[in-house]
Task: inverse folding
């Protein structure tokens, strides 16, 4: 649908909230890197829009916040329908379970195509096995014309658990900017609270929302274990936790209870993540579940060895023993041991970091990612809309 016969087609991206996160980071990069003559964009938030919107460099992107209350009601569908009618999309692209039901009002808009993206699962259904949620996914599946999965793990789950035909699934990895996230050859700058850094400090860092699924609690406990293993090493160890979220106070209390508050810095949300990463010696992602982790890609591009949990798409990014190490989620001892091995072996850190940088620059770039998204949008706009698909009957 090209308004007035001259404007490029508009994609309306439906998100739960436009706040800080990997999903939002990917969306910003796709919008900023799309040629304006090819597609226009709009963002429709079921709840509200945060400060992340400031990262958009295109000025032709309307952001609509519906501020819907928790739960689902007929009124929500009415508000979605009304907002979509005003925005006049050619394609409606929903993301994750929280926005999936927006496919329903989109289905009843003449000529509008429909895409759904799976970026990862939350703590209430880490493995995507919830009967209730999968019934909902299967009910809506016939009206979704294309699915995008950010990892092979999610693509296989869509096929096996949601029963999406393989030809309707496109697996597209996120990208990373290797110029923005790059190693530094200079000396470490002074950063953190006064007195935080000591001479010869060894800095372990993580980046992520402070929510249950990211499991920074296990990282804090493993860090306390690590501090207790070697008294001489303990005075040099520092942990930087970048991000904000509902669990910040509880995590700060956990650090105090473990006796490591003096060595832990909770930075809150930051706009200088790339600069902070350049101060790390080791990157750790302790999450219970992931789709594909932007922060792992950013750490690899920065030339850091990565320790991550063996969940979701993490094994697709971290090459065991070559660019980092994978450990079981929630295993405090295994995480502490993996950190100890890297912290006490500078040569290994350097070798894995260099291999990580080489791997990410070869396989994960934003230009390839955006081209894949735009090609899928082209494909969807070129197909005939058929509301009596045989797939509906097969369900």
Result:
């Amino acid at each position: 649908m090209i308004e007035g016969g001259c404007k490029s087609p508009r994609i309306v991206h439906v998100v739960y909230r436009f706040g800080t996160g990997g999903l939002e980071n990917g969306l910003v990069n796709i919008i900023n890197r799309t040629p304006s003559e090819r597609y226009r964009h709009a963002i429709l938030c079921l709840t509200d829009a945060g400060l992340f919107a400031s990262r958009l460099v295109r000025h032709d992107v309307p952001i609509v916040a519906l501020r819907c209350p928790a739960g689902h009601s007929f009124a929500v569908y009415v508000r979605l329908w009304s907002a979509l009618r005003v925005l006049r999309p050619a394609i409606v692209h929903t993301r994750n379970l929280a926005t999936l039901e927006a496919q329903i009002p989109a289905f009843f808009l003449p000529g509008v195509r429909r895409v759904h993206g799976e970026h990862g699962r939350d703590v209430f259904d880490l493995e995507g096995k919830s009967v209730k949620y999968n019934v909902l996914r299967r009910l809506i599946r016939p009206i979704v014309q294309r699915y995008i999965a950010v990892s092979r793990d999610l693509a296989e789950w869509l096929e096996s658990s949601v029963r999406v035909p393989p030809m309707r699934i496109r697996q597209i990895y996120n990208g990373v900017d290797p110029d923005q996230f790059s190693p530094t050859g200079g000396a470490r700058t002074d950063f953190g609270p006064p007195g935080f850094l000591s001479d010869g400090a060894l800095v372990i860092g993580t980046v992520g929302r402070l929510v249950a699924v990211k499991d920074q609690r296990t990282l804090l406990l493993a860090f306390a274990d690590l501090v207790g293993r070697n008294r001489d090493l303990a005075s040099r160890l520092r942990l930087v936790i970048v991000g904000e979220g509902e669990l910040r106070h509880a995590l700060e209390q956990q650090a105090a209870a473990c006796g490591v508050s003096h060595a832990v810095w909770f930075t809150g949300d930051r706009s200088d993540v790339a600069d902070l990463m350049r101060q790390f010696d080791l990157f750790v992602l302790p999450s219970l579940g992931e789709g594909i982790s932007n922060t792992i890609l950013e750490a690899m591009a920065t030339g850091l060895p990565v320790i991550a949990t063996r969940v979701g798409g993490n094994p697709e990014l971290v090459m065991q023993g070559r660019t980092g190490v994978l450990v079981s989620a929630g295993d405090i001892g295994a995480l502490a041991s993996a950190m100890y091995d890297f912290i006490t072996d500078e040569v290994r850190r350097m070798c894995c970091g260099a291999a990580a940088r080489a791997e990410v620059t070869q396989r994960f770039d934003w230009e390839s990612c955006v081209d894949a998204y735009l090609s899928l949008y082209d494909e969807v706009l070129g197909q005939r809309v058929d509301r009596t698909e045989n797939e509906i009957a097969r369900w």
Summary: The chain has two domains: 3-175+366-394, 202-363.
